[in-house]
Amino acid sequence: MNIINQPTQLGDLRSVSGDKGCESTQPSAQLSGGDDPGPGSMPGEAGCAPRADLWQIYHEVACEHPAEFNRALQHDLARGQQVVALRLDTATRLGLDPDHARSDEVGDRALSLVTLQDVDCVLRGVDLAAWPVHVHAGSAVLPFFAMLDAWLMEHGQSAKVLRGAVLGDPITEWLRRGTLPGGLSRAYEGMATLTKWSEKTGSPLRTVGVQAALWAEVGRSAEQELAFGLATGVDYLRALGKRGVAVDRGAPRFVFTFALGSWCYAEVAKLRAARRLWARAVAEMGGAADAQRLLCHGRIAGGGAANADPQANLLRVTSATFAGAVGGCAGLHVEANGEMPDDLLQRLKENVGSGAGEAGQPDCAAGPAEETCRVEALSRQLEERAWALFQEVEQRGGMAAAVSIGFPQELVEHGPLERLTPAELTTGMPFALHRAREIALLRRSTARARGREILARLGENQRANARTKMAALLDAFACGATLGEAARVLYQGGTGVPAIKPLRVGRH
Known about the structure:
By secondary structure, the chain is an alpha/beta fold. It is built from 20 helices and eight strands. Strands 1-8-7-6-5-4-3-2 form an eight-stranded parallel beta sheet. Helix 5 (141-154) links the parallel strand 3 (133-136) and strand 4. Residues 1-53, 303-308, 359-371, 418-435 and 437-447 have low confidence and may be disordered.
């Protein structure tokens, strides 16, 4: 059903979501095929049965060197972190080797993964069967996953042991950079291939990400974060549908990420509105009740005036974390900055998250913030405004079409600033340039003729099915191929996207 032809009536949303305002509802059924049917995965209705043991707290280590990252990760896991969260640099998310990327895209406070040696250095001693993973792989989700699978095979394991999320999100990368190597069509094919693999193997892995938090990072309002996030998700569902992944099979593989601030009522209301909006959109695209359930993560970034006052930073992060717990996030990335010792920051990340989970997600039938009528009123207001803006995007042909003509960018550039999350622009340039030269030498010495032959054959057979593609990629990585080489083969022949003005994250 075409979404843009649907009237914007709040009463209609109740019929889709089953919401009853401030009245209590029965617990919803668990999401079939998902790995964590926790509080973030309920459909539009307010009621659910939250389970505190599914509350995942993690933070992405802002580390560029694989060996240093491995030490930090093992330290964090030993002290209570529950997720192996990999933070990839821009070049890796775009599927570019360092010698083919801009210098500021390599090692920008994140990992640059090029060969199996890099992956081994990052994950050495980490049992991925014991810990769920969480990684945003941008437009290079398929080659990145194949490289991860090749590493697991070298250690006698299969990618079937993976739980959590390896997420593709090409539109976000396009908005951040202004261009997208290979274009959207090839990126969508990679997402579809990985989604089909997950379904066929029975893997609980989630494969499609929507980083709605991007719009908060550039200072936009909650309704724009909701509307543009929803529009991006709908575009991804359509793209998967054109590639043989029906709505009922694709929607349960999504993870949305929303920014969380310190105004607790507003953030809880935003998360409630997000669930109902997604439920309505999926229902109108023909999705069943199970497919309408939204799994969302929250992202809390430190910064701003709180950097000058550690106590204020502590209070702000605690409030935002509590909002994520009460609002129904299944996972939470906590990043607390400020003039505090590193050890104190680490304890803040660990203890605030676990404390909020215990306090905000009681094991009972009452849904997140269900009895708070003030939150419900705010949620309804956000819902109505966000749906109206979403319809404007749909009238322009969907999110990708709207981005290509600059519609959301114009709203960001000229609209009033309502919320800002200051950017952290440290890029580690000297290390990045050194790392680029080092990896370029490694690539030339390890990419043997066998790997190039395998990739060449794959490039000649772009219509190969998912199993054939995965097998070829695994063989190529085992022979020393790089992520960038694999991505170029998968990208070739793709329809390019127009260059756009990239969003300025952290705009003051």
